[in-house]
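[job 0412] stage=complex_fold ligand=FE2/S2 (inorganic) cluster status=START
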Amino acid sequence: MVAIPPTPTPDTPVDSAVSKDVRSLGINSNHWYVVARADEVTDKPLGVMLWGEAIVLFRDTNGHIQALEDRCPHRQVKLSQGEVVDGELECVYHGWRFNAAGKCTEIPYLADNQKLPGCTIRQFPVQELDGFIWLYPGDRDQLIAADIKPLGLPEWDHLNYIATVSIIDVEAHYSFLIENLMDMYHGRLHDDYQAWADPVLANLEMTDQRVDVLYDAQSYYRIDKIWSVSQLFFPALRKLHPEELRVSYIYPHWVSTLGQDFKICCLFCPISPTHTRAYLVHFTSLQAFHRLHKLPVPFRRWIKNSLFGSAQKMLDGLVAQDVLMLEQEQQSYNENPLYKGPEFNRAMISVQKLIRQQAQSRVASIHNGT
Ligand code: FES
Ligand SMILES: [Fe+2]
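[job 0412] stage=complex_fold status=DONE, emitting structure tokens
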């Protein structure tokens, strides 16, 4: 644990504590990032981008996810434009084939006296977990030595949680997005969606891997009776009541809970220094409905699946409002990168510190050859 920064007063804006700009910092690639939803990846190649690296995803004959560099070593065209044949990736241009390890296995016009080239394309550790595709773009030795695991979403398959997914695609550095998610003082922006109210930062803890912030807040929703789900649709039924609002930056992702009933995660896929993609996953808990737990599992699964996406309108609405702000922040930063606005949420100091530490730790590991 490290010391918690002092609470700034209105006379001591926290920007004075931020000596280095975070808006152009790279990512620590020694983590698992989310590059797609699991159902987006089929036996047709899918091209994705993670911090400037073009990657092609596909399912092999066993349905397992494979991830290769999206660049044919022959003429450097995109392999994601090709197709999967017998579980291998075939380039659309001259038909060279590559296996899951990235080795060239076939060239249709190879003469008897010619040999397959030894060139290998980069293969990435990848796994399908809890509805998403998690990819590790960093150092392999470090992955094994430190046993680095993906964050995962245990609620995804849990019968007591109803999920909704919204995709964030924003022309902004990832630091703008994580600061937005950790700064609960921006409820003003979402007034018409009434997600939470009156937050007061009550506690902040930080390690070299995460920042945890507790806000004392008010929630509009309480999901304790079957009819209470209708609060999601009828504002008149909502009543403010105190709830703990917890937000955590578990580098590079974000997890938040509002009381017992709601959990939201944001799974990051930083694409470039000015473009971030992320998956916002909202869970409504049905834990309070004890009778529901006694029902047959297939019925509970049917309920879970039928209600999938029930918070879509709210979630998409929140995302659209945030994206508008984040893109304005990025544009203003582009025009005047030296400007530092005053800041009064001390969680922002810790978030920026973690971003910096993680970026530096990756740079250090590259220099050390690990
Ligand atoms: S460019 Fe891919 S096979 Fe020729
Ligand atoms: Fe927001």
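The chain has five helices and 17 strands.
[job 0412] exit 0
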